[in-house]
User: Fold this.
Amino acid sequence: MQKDGSRWIRIGRQIREHRQHAGLSQEELAKLVALSPTMLSAMERGVRGIKRDHVERIDAALGTPGTLTELWDRSRRTGLPTWYEKVADIERAASEIWVYHPLLVPGLLQTQEYAEHIFRVGRPRDTPAEIEDLVCGRMSRKAIFDRERPPRLVVVLDEGVLRRPTGGREIMRRQLDHLLAESAKPHVSLQVVPYDSDHHPGLSNGFTLFTVPRKSPVLYVETRRFGKPTEDPEAVEDYAQLFSDLRGAALPLGASRQLIERLRGEF
Assistant:
């Protein structure tokens, strides 16, 4: 109930902000969408549940096609984008997760403030409430590591990820502290491909490989706006070999930690 209450408050706040921006009173909007003013008031205050067809009608009346409906969909479960929900299910079922990223710290290892900065820069038209929803969704994914038997997480990063002061020097310093703390846990392995490597096989894109018990391995590749998991054997084999090559090009675990510690000192 508490989780749903927070969800309705976020959606209600957005309804109110968009209504006020359109210059409409509660009574005027309620008439346009065939709701009573009392019901609309309760929805804006977040004290009652909100149906999807209600936000669809409000979107149409306010000239904000899909904005509120997307927020409703995104917050329906964990604040994740609807296109990521299937991947989140796979992530929760996985016994092993391999991640490579050439530009950013992967979501499962991001601090909240680092994630918030990434979303603000990447989605400049989103409202503060929408950014908050996305950040909460990303942070909620980490619950898989609270289990008695958490999945093994194997991560390879490019050194540039650690050197770039994403969000500012203070945010990046705390992000590096977080990487050091997480990589000290027995279920986490973190390696870094150094700048001075003359062989870097990962100059294309980031990706994730999931090992799920009693199921085929799953590959996930994401773009700016969407992503899609696949069990295609040829694609999975190709990326599994690429991940192996990346680990071979990266520093060993101990040397990777030493590099992170040194770079942390520079922030």
Remarks:
- Residues 82-266 form a domain with the Endonuclease; Chain A fold (CATH 3.30.870).
- Residues 122 and 224 are 8 Å apart (CA to CA).
